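Long-time lurker, first post. I've been practising inverse folding by hand and with some scripts of my own, and I keep getting stuck on stretches where the structure tokens seem ambiguous. Below is the full token string for one chain I'm working on. Before anyone asks, I'm not after the true native sequence, just a reasonable design that respects the backbone. If someone could post their per-position residues I'd love to compare against what I wrote down in my notebook.
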């Protein structure tokens, strides 16, 4: 999941995508299958890219009814209710809260409608047929390898997380597990939620830096919070002594890496367009009566000063 807000201007392609938010279909008008799709929030470019991949892969076989709850759990539940009452053939869902989404998920499956979760999982088994997401655990592991390299195998690290979202919990677990394995000289001295918000992450980072003055590394489970942590590091005058690693390869994160003098040293790239294509391929398989894997991971890649130009936007 890429938490990097996109500043939306008058771009026609973005407006065309957002135009589906009132229950209108994407490409595939008149298609044989109607799929209700509720995202997390289109204020994040990551979720726009997932919808782009879904729509491109549909190729006239699926009519998507894209909905954007904009991070509001009640709005997402209302969207699910609408999908169920209108009798869509399948529902795809990026749960806003992994625990709280259980009721909405059961609403879908109790109605006999197949449910695919995307990027963020529902904690409970509600009968969802598949979950499609980046290999978040592996992403955390490659971030740990990079942190070990940056810190030379010794130092103190803090993690800025968001425990309400399973995908980013997996990132933290992958990071801490790998760090313990390859870098016993590096200690994770604190882990605290930044609620996936830049300002909140900045405040959290400020507090953590005061509480742990020996910190030399920060891992944030998405770039939005990594960028907030960067502001705290700059304010503390510690850009030369702290290394920050994010997750999502957002345009702002890549720009920081490209600058060559930022504390923001690396990020983990997901492939949201490919994730969206995978969602559509999986949905079509389900609708055609085929068996699919319960968990479908999408590969991730570390982005740093050696390859950032490949990911520049």
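-- Answer (accepted) --
I ran through it position by position. Result:
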């Amino acid at each position: 999941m890429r938490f990097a807000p996109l500043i939306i201007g008058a771009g026609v392609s973005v407006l065309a995508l957002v135009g589906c938010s009132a229950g209108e279909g994407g490409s595939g008008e008149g298609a044989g299958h109607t799929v209700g799709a509720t995202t997390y929030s289109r204020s994040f470019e990551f979720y726009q890219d997932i919808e782009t991949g879904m729509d491109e892969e549909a190729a006239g076989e699926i009519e998507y009814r894209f909905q954007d709850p904009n991070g509001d759990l009640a709005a997402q539940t209302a969207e699910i209710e609408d999908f169920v009452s209108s009798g869509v053939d399948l529902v795809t869902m990026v749960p806003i809260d992994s625990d709280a989404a259980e009721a909405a998920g059961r609403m879908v499956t109790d109605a006999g409608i197949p449910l695919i979760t995307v990027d963020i999982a529902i904690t409970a088994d509600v009968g969802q047929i598949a979950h499609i997401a980046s290999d978040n655990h592996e992403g955390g592991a490659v971030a740990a390898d990079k942190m070990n390299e940056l810190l030379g195998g010794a130092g103190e690290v803090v993690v800025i997380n968001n425990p309400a979202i399973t995908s980013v919990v997996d990132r933290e677990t992958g990071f801490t597990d790998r760090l313990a394995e390859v870098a016993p000289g590096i200690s994770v001295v604190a882990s605290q939620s930044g609620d996936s918000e830049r300002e909140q992450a900045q405040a959290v980072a400020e507090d953590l830096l005061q509480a742990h003055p020996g910190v030399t590394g920060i891992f944030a489970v998405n770039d939005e919070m990594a960028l907030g942590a960067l502001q705290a590091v700059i304010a503390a005058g510690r850009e030369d002594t702290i290394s920050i690693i994010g997750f999502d390869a957002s345009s702002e994160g890549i720009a920081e890496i490209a600058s060559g003098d930022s504390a923001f040293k690396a990020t983990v790239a997901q492939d949201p367009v490919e994730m969206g294509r995978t969602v559509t391929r999986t949905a079509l398989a389900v609708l055609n009566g085929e068996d699919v894997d319960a968990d479908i991971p999408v590969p991730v890649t570390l982005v740093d000063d050696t390859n950032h130009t490949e990911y520049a936007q």
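A couple of notes from the structure itself: Residues 143 and 302 are 7 Å apart (CA to CA). The first strand starts at residue 33 and ends at 38. Happy to go over any region you disagree with.
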